[in-house]
Specification:
Length: 144
């Protein structure tokens, strides 16, 4: 009987991705990559997604305080093989060392955009005073 295919990652993929994220964060934090752009930038690794065969790790990074974020991601991709070698010590339990691919993490930008939309006058107008009064009434019941 064939296994059902799902779009969600397996528990093993999630566990390995988190181990890879920690190892990658430590490598970036130690400053082992000799590149002036990477050395002068604080890089946050927010998420790592593993392929189903665990051979490709896509790391979503956020260069903090960098003016040209695309250049930082490009530099990381240029040094991906070096990073792979440096991370291999922390991931020696894996049968195959994953190939690294770096992508810019845009989730924080999306969160800020949604927050701005929720605070916009058009949305506030749609909520109206009745909705806010009901919400305040519910909040008062919770505190009693």
């Amino acid at each position: 009987m064939p296994r059902p295919t799902t779009s969600s990652p397996s528990q093993r993929m999630l566990r390995v991705a988190e181990q890879v994220r920690h190892a990658l964060s430590e490598t970036l934090q130690r400053g082992e990559i000799i590149d002036p752009l990477i050395e002068s930038t604080v890089i946050s690794v927010s998420e790592v997604r593993m392929s189903t065969d665990l051979r490709v790790a896509t790391a979503f990074v956020s260069p903090l305080g960098a003016k040209d974020t695309d250049a930082v991601v490009e530099a990381l991709n240029k040094h991906a093989k070096f990073v792979r070698g440096r991370v291999s010590g922390a991931l020696r339990q894996m049968k195959f060392m994953p190939e690294f691919r770096f992508k810019l993490d845009t989730s924080f930008d999306n969160f800020a955009r949604i927050s701005d939309l929720l605070k916009s006058p058009e949305v506030a107008r749609d909520l109206g005073p009745d909705d806010q009064a009901e919400q305040n009434k519910d909040d008062n019941k919770d505190t009693e």
